[in-house]
């Protein structure tokens, strides 16, 4: 059993009880408290994010740029926003890379004494295929630095196995992801420079399981292109153990992934015109593309449905924004950021005035607050609104990274804002076959859309 | 993809950057920051809560008071703490109620025109059985008040169907649980007073699914005892729909649950003696018993393993507490609170000096902070430590309910403290067959134990 809380956690009462600086409470008004309460009530009683996500993940599924599913997702986004009766819904054309995993993806460990083991692997996004079977010995390293320090003959003709785990000591899992990411992004390119035939990379995950995690990797412009595969964390631990006992073992890798010609695709944009300052634009978005292994539920179907939900919440509550609010479903965040770049480029071409841009791309988990990229004065102004979000547990406003799709807008906006939610479970499923609808909790998802709508409402009312 | 955060979220730096009142930062010291960092590092790198919970839920499972599993859990708790090399591990005898669900538990809707439907039901804890099949018409109400207002002939000989949902508008789900709980606790007793033959109660859940949620109900001392069953939320919605079309339909209920003689059981207690003030005691606990339907994972295996982990973390980090710290695995929280009452009673008998008591009984989800029951000055003193927990996202310290097992200690302690974690998913699985180990995330669980240990460390150092 669990008995009820008696936290004075709702309404203005709570706002006045908070431990926030006085500067903040001075800013808060009953009108704003009530408006935000209306937004949360609508989201918790009638939120649509969850059912929209059920369709996107279940009926369309994984949707890598250039795939038929990505195109279905574009049409789904357009039609869904058109049904919402917005002031404007349109597509923004953008050319995207088209990489395909192909049917073959497997790896076998062959011990020098005949012992064998199948590894759970997947190609990293952008990798070349193996062109049949590629068999070689393996050299394990913990970092790009360790690789650089090795004599060439230790690496030549082998697979370089990058096995540095994510650092479990960071409470914020995104930090650990960032620190371990260089192996995945540049491992193959650096390995090729030293004469290696391929790269095997430990999956970027804090979980111990059998899911390989894909993700983007890059080759040097004129460097040799060697195949790059991710191993599940369990698989990486097993391979490392086997190597200790048998350094002569070989791995046989077969992957049929390939790069195809670029394809035409679209950002999907819906907007509500501002009632007072229609020329001032606040953008909120997530990315519509996803990796191909799972359903792209937390990455980033949740960010897309929450962004659309912000517009629906403003309409349903009758809180017409004084400034224009746009939901942008960006294409190609995962392997090119072409959609984000195109959106910023067009904003410049059209001479649009962008006030702020917000992105949700950390999953649809319980909201914690927002990470803000802006000048100190603007950060402080946004922080004066913390008390209004505190009753909803979404009041952690701090300087921090916003989002990959909105960063290209940096020079054109007052503030870039990243929606910040609980990060503990995200990297367990990130870029895997396990990123599916059943991992999303309805209330956690709808609370996220509500907190985004609340901050968008305040910016649209007070400006920046 | 998700790019790394650059939140200055760790270490003293963050403490100094927080928006907390100055009073607080004045209190914080580098030594305390470093000690707390050590606790979190140990928990995140080597935490044992998760593997302990795997055993308790997987090898023992559901463990209702009086059951063989409850006794196995007592022995498991004793042995596990003995292996930790504590200063003292002992059992505290307590007599507990022994209720058994029995093999039969089913309900059939029979339409007056022959239409039928099977309902997902379970007996509420403490209910009498149906003694064969019990068939009657159904009258739906939303509240005890609505029932009281009905003319007797509308109720006599029928099942009273309490169908008020939990209020989805509360962000803190515990509030919604508290508000809807009267139907489950007193529904049958009130229905019997009006001549009803039984009570059917909508499950206390914010999810829409087929799991019936059990939980404690009570009869009046000298009142008639009629059977009480919970319907899944989907089942309750279906029955309500059917009643609109066919008010003469009947429900046939069969339940073989029964009350057995009281049984001897135990609270399991382990302690580390305080280095300076051994006579001053800080208790931390969860409840060892659980309902029988699932594995008692989030309710409350997590609270038990976290409480044991607090002792392990203090030992492993070498942060010997200046005051005595006790982990208490309380028996019988679910249907009697005999263990909690016995612990408080013995504390008085033995003339023990209890400084503070903390309980974790809201699941093993990501920590948010603590709910404190104490005089305003003590609450303020505890709140001066908020900045030390802020880097770990566990800094919401507010007045609020602590825990059912520690409340009997209220008159004997300076502060009762409830560990507060994310509440969104808890009631989806609470008291159901779905409260299983796979619903627990390793990092979320270990972070909880670390935040509990951090606050216990501060209380043991500074007192209250």
From TrEMBL, chains A, B:
Location within or outside the cell: Endoplasmic reticulum; Golgi apparatus; Lysosome; Secreted
InterPro entries xref list: CPQ, Peptidase_M28
One of the protein's GO biological processes: proteolysis
Superkingdom field: Bacteria
All copies of domain Peptidase M28, residue ranges: 267-453
GO molecular function annotations of the record: carboxypeptidase activity; metal ion binding; metallodipeptidase activity
GO cellular component: extracellular region; lysosome
Signal peptide range: 1-26
Keywords, sorted A to Z: Carboxypeptidase, Endoplasmic reticulum, Glycoprotein, Golgi apparatus, Hydrolase, Lysosome, Metal-binding, Metalloprotease, Protease, Secreted, Signal, Zinc, Zymogen
One Pfam family linked to the record: Peptidase_M28
Complexes and interactors: Homodimer. The monomeric form is inactive while the homodimer is active.
Name of the protein in its database record: Carboxypeptidase Q
Species in which this protein is naturally found: Hymenobacter perfusus
């Amino acid at each position: 059993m669990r008995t009820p809380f008696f936290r004075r956690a709702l309404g203005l009462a709570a706002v006045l009880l908070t431990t926030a600086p006085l500067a903040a409470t001075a800013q808060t008004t009953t009108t704003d408290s009530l408006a935000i309460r209306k937004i949360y009530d609508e989201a918790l009683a009638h939120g649509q994010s969850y059912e929209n996500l059920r369709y996107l993940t279940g009926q369309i599924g994984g949707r890598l740029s250039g795939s038929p599913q990505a195109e279905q997702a574009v049409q789904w986004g357009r039609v869904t926003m058109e049904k919402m009766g917005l002031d404007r819904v349109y597509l923004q054309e953008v050319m995207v890379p088209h990489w395909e995993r192909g049917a073959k993806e497997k790896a076998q460990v062959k011990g020098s004494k005949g012992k064998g083991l199948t590894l759970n692997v997947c190609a990293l996004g952008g990798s070349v295929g193996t062109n049949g079977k590629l068999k070689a010995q393996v050299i394990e390293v913990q970092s790009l630095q360790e690789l650089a320090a090795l004599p060439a003959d230790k690496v030549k003709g082998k697979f370089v196995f990058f096995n540095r785990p994510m650092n479990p000591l960071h409470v914020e899992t995104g930090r650990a992801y960032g620190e371990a990411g260089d192996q995945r992004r540049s491992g193959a390119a650096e390995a090729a420079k030293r004469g290696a035939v391929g790269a095997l990379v430990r999956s970027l995950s804090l979980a111990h399981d059998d899911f390989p995690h894909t993700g983007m990797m890059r080759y040097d412009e004129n460097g040799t292109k060697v195949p790059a595969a991710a191993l599940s964390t369990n698989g990486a631990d097993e391979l490392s153990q086997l190597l200790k006992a048998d350094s002569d073992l070989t791995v046989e890798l077969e992957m049929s992934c390939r790069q195809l010609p670029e394809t035409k695709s679209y950002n999907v944009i819906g907007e509500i015109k501002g009632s007072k300052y229609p020329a001032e634009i606040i953008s909120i978005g997530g990315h519509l593309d996803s990796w191909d292994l799972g359903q792209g539920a937390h990455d980033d179907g949740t960010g897309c449905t929450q962004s659309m939900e912000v517009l629906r919440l403003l309409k349903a509550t009758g809180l017409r924004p004084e400034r224009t609010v746009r939901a942008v479903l960006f294409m190609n965040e995962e392997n090119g950021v072409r959609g984000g770049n195109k959106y910023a480029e067009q904003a410049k071409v059209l001479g649009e005035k962008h006030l702020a841009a917000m992105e949700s791309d950390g999953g649809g988990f319980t909201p914690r607050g927002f990470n803000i990229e802006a000048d100190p004065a603007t950060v402080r102004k946004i922080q004066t609104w913390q008390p209004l979000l505190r009753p909803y547990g979404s009041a952690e406003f701090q300087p921090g990274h916003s989002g990959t799709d909105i960063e290209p807008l940096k020079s054109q906006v007052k503030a870039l804002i990243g929606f910040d939610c609980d990060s503990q479970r995200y990297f367990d499923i990130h870029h895997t076959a396990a990123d599916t609808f059943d991992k999303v909790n309805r209330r956690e998802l709808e609370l996220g859309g509500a907190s985004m709508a609340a901050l968008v409402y305040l910016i649209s009312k007070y400006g920046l």
